Amino acid sequence: MRITEQRxxxxxxxxxxxxxxxxxxxxxxxxxxxxxxRLLEKLPGMPPEASARLSDCSSxxxxxxxxxxxxxxxxGAAGSFxxxxxxxxxxxxxxxxxxxxxxxxxxxALRTAQDLVRAIAxxxxxxxxxxxxxxxxxxxxxxxxxxxxxxVNAAHKRGIPSLRLTDHANLFQLGWGSKQKRLQATIxxxxxxxxxxxxxxxxxxxxxxxxxxxxxxxxETVTTLAAAQRIARRIGTVTIKPLDANQxxxxxxxxxxxxxxxxxxxxxxxxxxxxxxxxxxxxxxxxVLVTGRKIAAASWxxxxxxxxxxxxxxxxxxxxxxxxxxxxxxxxxILTKIPLDxxxxxVLAKAGYDFDSVPPEGESVDLRGNAxxxxxxxxxxxxxxxxEETREICIRAARTIGLDVAGIDIVCQDISQPLREQRxxxxxxxxxxxxxMHQYPSRGTPRDAGGAIVDALFGEDNxxxxxxxxxxxxxxxxxxxxxxxxxxxxxxxxxxxxTEGVFIDGQQIAKGDCTGYRxxxxxxxxxDVDFAVLETARGGILKRGLAYDRCDxxxxxxxxxxxxxxxxxxxxxxxxxxxAVVARRASRAVVLNAEDDHCVAMAxxxxxxxxxxxxxxxxxxxxDNPVLLRHLEKGGRAVYFEDNAIVLAxxxxxxxxxxxxxxxxxxxxxxxxxxxxxxxxxAALVASGFSNAEIEDGxxxxxxxxxxxxxxxxxxxVDGVTVIVDYAHNSAAYAALAETxxxxxxxxxxxxxxxxxxxxDADLVDIxxxxxxxxxxxxxxxxxNRGRAAGSVAAQLVEGIRLAKxxxxxxxxxxxxxxxxxxxxxRCVPGDLLVFGCGSDISELLEAIRPTSPDVARxxxxxxx
Length: 865
What we know:
Layout (H helix, E strand, L loop, with lengths): L2 E7 L10 E7 L8 H8 L5 H8 L4 H15 L7 E5 L6 E7 L3 H19 L6 H15 L3 H12 L4 E3 L6 E4 L6 E4 L2 E2 L4 H8 L1 H10 L7 E4 L2 H11 L2 E5 L9 E4 L2 H12 L5 E5 L4 E8 L2 E9 L2 E3 L6 H9 L4 E2 L6 E2 L5 H9 L13 E3 L11 E4 L6 H14 L3 E8 L12 E6 L5 H4 L9 H10 L8 E5 L4 H14 L4 E5 L2 E4 L2 E5 L5 H8 L6 E5 L2 H7 L6 E6 L15 H13 L1 E8 L3 H12 L6 E6 L5 H8 L3 E6 L2 E5 L4 E6 L12 H16 L4 H10 L12 E5 L2 E6 L4 H14 L4 E5 L7 H14 L2 E4 L11 H12 L7 E3 L3 H10 L6 E5 L4 H8 L4 H11 L1
Parallel strand pairs: 16-17, 22-26, 22-27, 23-26, 27-28, 28-29, 29-30, 34-38, 35-36, 35-38, 36-37
Antiparallel strand pairs: 1-2, 2-4, 3-4, 5-6, 6-7, 7-8, 9-12, 10-11, 10-12, 13-14, 13-20, 14-19, 15-18, 20-21, 23-24, 24-25, 30-31, 31-32, 33-34
Helix pairs in contact: 3-4, 4-5, 6-15, 9-10, 16-22, 16-23, 19-20, 22-23, 24-25, 25-26, 27-28, 28-29
């Protein structure tokens, strides 16, 4: 049972709309009697459906998926989706797909599941307890904090997207592009750094609040015990705490004797050199959450405590309470475990108890002098009890310190009464306040504190910029650039991913094939992007999934045979399912090719999805296409080509917006595939709300040359021979390129052709036959063989050419690209047209012609630059 491939699909993918771990397993023909039953003995709490599947399972490979899911659940990081699938064309392999909540925990769970299944199959011992402890540690290490999770979940409910920016720290981006906000716990990108510094200085906070008319306890900051004793004698009963600690660290309350002051001072000094000695305000401990200029919630915080039953010791009562599933370590759970430490011992001693005391039935015993949830406290919601005056004081306090999100700590006898009337006051103002006490109070009404923070950050906005996803077999890059160019012409800063790189507002920030998850994410995280157009290739979808939960508009240009036999995709039908992943993520509209059967089938699938109704816009080079006409009759919108014009249409209006002969990208109307790309771009822009005039301006001003759109029908003149450089690499692309070239010249058409070596033999033969049908003369060369032996790719292309009855004297094989280009040019006379297909860079053309035509090479180099 060997794992031959493992991938984390971090966004919507071929299997689910949520993240998945996918692994291909070597499905050995082995049967282990009783395997499922023995695994269930180890994992008795497995959900019923998975348990039923596993009970009769005898295949180790088939057991891997349900065991992995159960281990994730036991680790506290359950996934919501799983399945096992046969790998197309290879019965010896099994694909396991497991949804996950935490990527690192999922990977570890799969490895543990593999070890567990192997051990059980071999009747060997397996220390499941130790393995689970390690999984739980991983899950906790990478888990999202409770407060951060509450804000992120609230954002999701509002439709605001989120991206986790770090694995460990709770740093998130909410929203995309120029609308993004950042969040870490409850610190936001709008939180003032100076304000955080003020809040961490408790004495400065008190001084500013006092100046602002907010009630605060009297007190001073000291550095020596003698000074602390002096202030305590003057004030009376005091609270002693570090100047800049948090979460209740180093705090001692109700100190009234010199010994108590000394112990409290030494305790506070463990957390900082400066110590505050201040008036002890009697009463209850309250926390008020301020978000923006609103009160989001208020809680009465009770110190960690247990209630006696007259039988059990305090130690036993605490141990029982700590087994409460709601309690955990740190901030991972709703509540924190109650510590039995020196501080608890001191608090108990004041009440005449120790850990082994048995309190009477019904008596509440405190184990802390402060009520922080981080030390085991609990909370009761009191939001509705706040008087208007107290609300105003809390908002003023937050604004005085300068915090957009603040936790105001108040001590008073009764929060429902005005503070000054009962000598209550504000004892602290907290930056990054925990909100789990408000989200999950032990008693009272839960308050959506996370939602309140989201409201303060975004108002009514959903944090989304327009996003258009473009996919298909051919034409993706040109269509992507057309759409982005039109959007940029209106003043929007665009973010673009293509096979050539990543572009932010026209500037290239990354080079290479950037059509996958990582590149799209770089656009969505850029604060300088108002409008994103993301070319989305097959490989990116299969290897990592989409970088976005949904896009406004999806464009599927076409589906033709390409890259078949890779990544488990063996047929055009399977490839169409991959492309449909992008179509299914549209929230506003899907643009589809009415002349492509696979695209038309996608429209039917989308129509059957009752949960996600989106508009379909068709485009077609044929104005009389029956699919397009029926769509218009039913009230749909479409874009088609007629009488050299791009026409936008609905059931009542057909408006020609641009003459394709005036659009440079169409080569005066000769490049029909670029007319089709322009139709798709126009449809996407219509669906995005652009006006007809804006669409026309964008289409007519886009220039597709080596600088703006390299390897996409770039034209050069070499001594009277027109040379087209294009990255044609499949049969459909070569056929379209030959058609365009034929329309551009009355002379002969010479093709210098190649294909990537990772195509199947049959596909290479088909490419060769297609080239034989489209060109008058052919020179075959080799480029990226991708693991094949030298000459093998060319041999398959030549086989296809010869099967098409291509005359031998019109065919030449030159494996070296430079020799092939020179051979192709030698077959041309002025007026002919040479197509250099599957080229990877203009330097190949320049190096080929430089020895014989240095002046031409210099001119082309200048033009390209």
